[in-house]
Amino acid sequence: MDKPVTQTDIVNGLRELGLRSGDIAFVHSSLSSFGYVEGGAKTVVQAFLEVLGPDGTLVVPIFRRYFWEGPDQVWDWDNSPSFMGRISETVRTWPGVHRSHHAPHPIAAVGPLAEDITERCNITDFGPDSPFSRLLELNSWIVMVGVGYNTCTMVHLVEERMEVPYRNWQNLSGIVIEN
User: Fold this and answer.
1) H or E element: which one contains 176?
2) Model confidence over 118-140: pLDDT tens digits?
3) ∠ CA 12-49-110 to the nearest 5 degrees?
4) Residue 28 host element (H or E)
5) Residue 157 CB: number of other CB atoms within 10 A?
6) Taking Cα atoms as reference points, which of 120, 121, 96, 122 lies closest to residue 109?
7) 3-state secondary structure 51-112
């Protein structure tokens, strides 16, 4: 049986990658890619927060496929869970978390810049008024843990800016419950 992964192991690994106190990390992740983690997803989140320190901000996607399957879908800003994995869901419910307001592609953030990043009222998912643009402006880290680059949300920001022909605008509708 393999040795369990501890918070210290994760902290050391993140620091070895170059992540430092005060950084902003936009994390896409797979908990199972770590192997057995003592304490599960909570340990991973605590490790990131330890490395980022009190001046750093942790950001994760908390996506679902809202409104793609018809206007009767409901997105509850406070209660709809993330379909992006256990780490993402753990951040979504973390004390002091801030969540963005865009139902198809919401994010959750913890740290001093969390509100700055999430409070944008963007019209398009990845436009210049989006949290993703703000992450770029802030020179955020993009951290991929156990997932391929094809899951990196920031590629859509580049696609929108470059106006690639395969991205198109779609009007989606549904029910949003906020507060």
Assistant:
1) strand 175-177
2) 998 777 778 788 898 899 999 99
3) 155
4) strand 24-29
5) 20
6) 96
7) HHCCCCEEEEECCCCCCCCCCCCEEECCCCCCCCCHHHHHHHCCCCCEECCCCCCCEEEECC
Match 């990131």 to its residue by tokens: 48
| Structural element, H or E, at residue 159 | helix 154-162
pLDDT of amino acid 81: 82
Taking only the tens place, the pLDDT of each residue in 39-81 is 999 999 999 999 999 999 999 999 876 666 667 777 777 888 8
The closest of 108, 155, 100 to 129, measured between CA atoms, is 100
Contact 178, 77 (CB under 8 A): yes
**140, 19 in Cβ contact below 8 A?**
no
Whether pTM exceeds 0.85: yes
CA distances in angstroms from 129 to 66, 102, 120, listed in the order given: 20, 11, 7
Tokens of 53: 């320190």
The answer to whether 99 and 118 are in contact (CB under 8 A) is yes
Dihedral-angle region of residue 98 (phi above 0 means left; psi in -120 to 50 means alpha; beta otherwise):
beta
Looking at residue 153, its pLDDT comes to 77
- Residue 109 contacts residue 97 (beta carbons within 8 Å): yes
